[in-house]
Specification:
The complex is a heterodimer. By secondary structure, chain A is mainly α. Chain A is built from 16 helices and 4 strands. Chain B is α+β, with helices and mostly antiparallel strands. Chain B has a single domain, classed as 2-Layer Sandwich (Alpha-Beta Plaits), CATH 3.30.70.120. Classes of the chains: A mainly alpha, B alpha+beta. Chain B: It comes from Tsuneonella deserti.
């Protein structure tokens, strides 16, 4: 298990201690490989591109024109908040030196981290700890922003900020610890999550559903048409997301090696498969193949391949993309209207559902029987069971944490904008400016 | 004099203009408009969710003609703008009381 190797190594992250000169000397001997460091710095910036401008344009284009700036501003501001919280207590709660199965502690305010500190990768290589911290920071930032896809066009800006602060603390950091840190609950179970299918997508998707239910529908939904105001910008955002996702997926190997290459090619083909299968599903359902269908398929494929990126073979990724795309289509076009929740931009329908397909599918397709890179030491059945357990725990954790975070945000800010602001649009009502003049 | 208002499918505009020019119509006013008739709009589908759009884009042509030419203009528009599909549009004919060319002050048929 590639993740097993990571377990001990990360806990043993090297640190320079003034009290122990001998240890310091030994630690200084292990320096980050510049090639790996360079790739991880590149990956980190690619993930930033997924947020601003990627997700901001993708989500912004899907809203009505009167809420374009509000949507983009919420994403940007929440990402910034997440970055600051990450360096204050997020990194310590997710990857601190001390901890249990659910959360860690230590290294708050990056105590003890210097330019010489290193973080372990999956081999005996190390990367600079600042680079690792930055890379993981972008994950926290985009995940918090993803949740907002279900709540746009009606939630106060102040409520968004309060919610994000609490949600990151009680939902994101613990789940990141459980999945990726040595000693974490899912980590020890042997759950496979290459680049955050559980941490990012199921986590954000389920939180989005709970938030949409607690917040209530937008005024006029579903009787009044609320079509996207600019599919052009959504398409631009989709492209930026796809490019940035290579940092997300291929970067999650933490080294520029062959597994990163596998994650890269899988990020191509799963996405390509999903984009076309969404449009094929539209045709099969008697509609036209649409641009939004294409964009939705791209994102569904990217979401599904996230946990699988370095964990399945190339044709496993093709299948995974296709299956996730078809299931997500029915989630957003049939399940959502039937259940009546207003997941405005389908954060649950695509990230939540796609993440679950990806996480469970990884358990199956990891096996060499399906061309996966697994060694066959764990049976498909037991690996899939572990994946399902990790998904189930994440769903419960995210749902409960979101309910708490939103309740606090409601108490502090009132949560929803007034009917007048909602009618006029949040751009003018919450920010005092218009996207288009 | 007659004032003819025709609401047609936008892609038929060029053909209608050519037809009317060949009849000797000297000018027209064209406006992009939205509306609905028996067609009752169209359906757009986003991620599988259907939205019916009540108003469809059309082009409105306004032409002032002499009484002698009016019938031919109506017939020409009716034939050229016709696709036999729903939503081809309508033609309205109104009596025109007066017309004045601003540059010269001419009035009546000669001002058209």
């Amino acid at each position: 298990m590639i993740r097993k190797a990571f377990a001990g190594a990360l806990v043993a992250t090297l640190s320079l201690s003034a009290a122990s000169p001998a240890l310091a000397q030994e630690a200084a001997a292990k320096v980050a490989d510049p090639g790996n460091n360079a790739w991880m710095m590149t990956s980190t910036i690619l993930v930033l591109m997924m947020i601003l401008p990627g997700l901001a344009l993708f989500y912004g284009g899907l809203t009505r024109s009167k809420n374009m700036l509000s949507t983009m501003t919420q994403i940007g501001a929440v990402a910034c908040l997440a970055m600051l919280v990450w360096v204050m207590w997020g990194y310590g709660m997710a990857f601190g030196p001390e901890g249990n199965a659910f959360v860690s502690w230590g290294k708050f305010f990056l105590a003890g981290v210097t330019s010489d500190s290193t973080a372990a990768t999956f081999s005996d290589e190390v990367i600079s700890e600042y680079v690792f911290i930055s890379f993981q920071m972008t994950f926290a930032a985009i995940t918090a922003a993803l949740v907002l896809g279900s709540t746009v066009e009606r939630m106060k800006f102040s409520a968004v900020m309060v919610f994000a602060l609490i949600w990151l603390t009680i939902v994101y950091f613990p789940v990141a610890h459980m999945v990726w840190a040595g000693g974490g609950l899912f980590f020890e179970m042997g759950a496979l999550d290459f680049a955050g299918g559980t941490v990012v997508h199921i986590n954000a998707g389920v939180s989005a559903l709970v938030a949409a239910l607690m917040l209530g529908r937008r005024r006029g939904y579903p009787a009044e048409p609320m079509p996207p105001h600019s599919l052009t910008l959504t398409m631009v955002g989709t492209g930026l997301l796809w490019v940035g996702w290579f940092g997300f997926n291929a970067g999650s190997e933490l080294e520029a090696d062959g597994t990163a290459g596998l994650a890269m090619i899988n990020t191509f083909v799963a996405t390509a498969s999903a984009a076309l299968f969404w449009m094929l599903t539209e045709r099969a359902m008697g509609h036209k193949g649409s641009a939004l269908g294409f964009c939705s398929g791209v994102v569904a494929g990217l979401v599904a391949v996230t946990p699988a990126a370095g964990n399945v073979g190339v044709f496993g990724a093709v299948v995974l993309g296709a299956v996730a795309s078809v299931v997500c289509f029915f989630a957003v076009s049939k399940l959502k209207p039937r259940m009546g929740y207003d997941d405005a931009l389908d954060a649950f329908g695509i990230h939540g559902i796609g993440g679950m397909i990806g996480a469970v599918g990884t358990g199956i397709l990891h096996d060499p029987l399906f061309g996966g890179p697994g060694d066959g030491s764990v049976s498909i059945g037991s690996q899939t069971l572990v994946q399902v357990q990790a998904v189930a725990v994440t769903i419960l954790w995210a749902a409960a944490g979101t309910a708490i975070a939103l309740t606090v945000a409601r108490f502090v800010t009132g949560l929803r904008v007034t009917p007048e602001v909602e009618y006029d649009g949040l751009d003018i009502g919450e920010h005092g400016e218009r996207a288009y003049n | 004099m007659k004032f003819i208002i025709a609401v047609i499918k936008p892609f038929k505009l060029d053909e209608v203009r050519e037809a009317l020019s060949s009849l000797g119509v000297a000018g027209m006013t064209v406006t992009e408009v939205k509306g609905f008739g028996r067609q009752k709009g169209q359906t757009e589908i986003y991620r599988g969710a259907e939205y019916s759009t009540n108003m469809l884009p059309k082009v409105k042509i306004e032409v002032a003609t002499s009484d002698a030419l009016a019938l031919q203009v109506v017939e020409a528009i009716q034939q050229v703008a016709r696709t036999e599909a729903i939503g081809d549009g309508k033609i309205f004919v109104l009596d025109l009381v007066s017309a004045t060319r601003i540059r010269t002050g001419e009035t009546g048929d000669i001002a058209l």
